[in-house]
C-alpha cells in the first residue's frame, strides 16, 4: 500500500502468556474489548490432538487468530513440532504463526543460511495448510532479516515496535518499516525504556516507558491495515484497556 494513503482501523488483539492459565487471560481480553487473541505457544507441551481440543474450547469465547511459536533450535525436531502446532490450530481459525530469527538460548548458534533453509520448510508447510508465517525482529538489523524475505517469497514480516527501540534506538520502528514494510503481515506493540536484551524488553503498557508509540502507530497505519497485537505482560487489566483505547484512537484518526 502506498505510504501516506488512508488505511481503515486495524484489528487489535491481545497476547496471552503460556505460563499463566489461558481461560482467565482470554476472558480478560474479551472483557477489555480486544478483537482477537494471540495464542502464546512458548511453554505449551500438549500433543496436537489435545492442543486442538483445548484451543477449540478457548476459541468459543474469543477468536485465536494469531499464534506465537516458541524459540527454535532450527532443527528437524522443532520443525515437526511447529508443523504440529499449525495442524492443530488452523482448523480452529488461527491464520498467522509468528516466529523469531534468534535461536533458543538452550541451543547452539545457527548460521543465517541454516535458519533461512529451515524457515523455507516451515513457510511451505504453513502455506500448504492455508496459514502464514511471520518473522519477527528482535535485535537483528533489517538487512539480515531482508535476506530471509528475499529467499522466501511467502514469508511475511512481524514488526515488533518495542524491540526496534531496544539499545536506545529512538527511531527504530520507522527504520524497520522503511526497510521491511512491504512484507508486513503482523505487528506487535508494547513500551520499554530502550534497554538491552531480555532485561530491556519490558513489555510495558503504553506510557510506562520512553517510546513515542503514537508516532510509531501513525507511521505504521500509513502502510498497513492488518492485525496488531498488544504484547503487554505487566500492569493491570485496566492498563490494557487504556492501551486498547489509545490504539483505537490512533488508528482511526
Q: What is the succession of H and E elements?
A: EHEHEHEHEHEHHEHHEH
Task: Using the alpha-carbon principal axes, give the shape.
Answer: globular
Number of domains: 1
CATH class: Alpha Beta
CATH homology-level superfamily: Divalent-metal-dependent TIM barrel enzymes
The pLDDT mean sits at: 94
Strand content: 5-15%
Q: Uncertain segments of ≥5 residues (pLDDT<50)?
A: 1-8
CATH architecture: Alpha-Beta Barrel
Radius of gyration: 17 Å
Q: What is the fold named in CATH at topology level? A: TIM Barrel
Estimated helix fraction: 40-55%
Number of helices: 10
Structural write-up:
By secondary structure, the protein is α/β, with parallel strands linked by helices. It has one domain: TIM Barrel (Alpha-Beta Barrel), CATH 3.20.20. It is 42% helix and 14% strand. The chain contains ten helices and eight strands. Strands 1-2-3-4-5-6-7-8 form an eight-stranded parallel β-barrel, surrounded by four helices. Helix 4 crosses helix 5 and helix 9 packs across helix 10. The N terminus is likely disordered.
Short description:
The protein is globular and about 40 Å long. The chain has 10 helices and 8 strands. It has a single domain, classed as TIM Barrel (Alpha-Beta Barrel).
Layout: helices, strands, pairs:
Blueprint: E1 12-15, H1 22-32, E2 36-40, H2 48-59, E3 66-68, H3 76-89, E4 96-100, H4 112-128, E5 132-136, H5 142-151, E6 156-160, H6 161-164, H7 172-180, E7 184-189, H8 197-200, H9 213-221, E8 228-230, H10 237-252
Helix pairs in contact: 2-3, 3-4, 4-5, 5-7, 9-10
Amino acid at each position: 500500500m502506498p505510504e501516506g494513503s488512508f488505511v481503515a482501523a486495524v484489528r487489535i488483539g491481545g497476547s496471552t502468556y503460556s505460563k499463566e492459565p489461558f481461560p482467565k487471560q482470554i476472558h480478560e481480553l474479551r472483557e477489555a474489548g480486544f478483537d482477537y487473541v494471540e495464542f502464546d505457544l512458548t511453554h505449551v507441551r500438549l500433543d496436537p490432538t489435545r492442543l486442538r481440543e483445548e484451543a477449540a474450547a478457548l476459541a468459543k469465547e474469543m477468536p485465536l487468530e494469531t499464534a506465537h511459536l516458541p524459540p527454535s533450535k532450527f532443527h528437524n525436531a522443532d520443525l515437526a513440532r511447529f508443523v504440529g502446532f499449525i495442524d492443530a490450530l488452523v482448523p480452529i481459525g488461527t491464520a498467522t504463526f509468528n516466529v523469531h530469527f534468534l535461536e533458543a538460548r538452550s541451543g547452539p548458534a545457527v548460521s543465517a543460511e541454516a535458519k533461512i533453509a529451515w524457515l523455507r520448510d516451515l513457510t511451505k508447510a504453513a502455506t500448504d495448510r492455508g496459514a502464514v508465517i511471520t518473522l519477527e525482529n528482535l535485535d537483528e538489523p533489517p538487512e539480515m532479516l531482508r535476506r530471509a524475505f528475499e529467499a522466501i517469497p511467502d514469508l511475511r514480516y512481524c514488526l515488533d515496535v518495542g524491540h526496534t527501540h531496544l539499545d536506545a534506538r529512538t527511531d527504530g520502528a520507522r527504520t524497520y518499516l522503511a526497510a521491511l514494510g512491504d512484507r508486513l503481515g503482523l505487528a506487535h506493540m508494547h513500551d520499554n525504556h530502550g534497554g538491552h536484551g531480555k532485561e530491556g524488553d519490558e513489555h510495558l503498557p503504553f506510557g510506562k516507558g520512553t517510546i513515542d508509540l503514537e508516532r510509531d502507530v501513525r507511521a505504521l497505519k500509513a502502510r498497513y491495515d492488518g492485525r496488531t497485537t498488544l504484547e503487554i505482560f505487566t500492569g493491570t487489566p485496566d492498563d490494557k484497556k487504556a492501551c486498547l483505547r489509545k490504539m483505537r484512537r490512533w488508528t482511526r484518526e
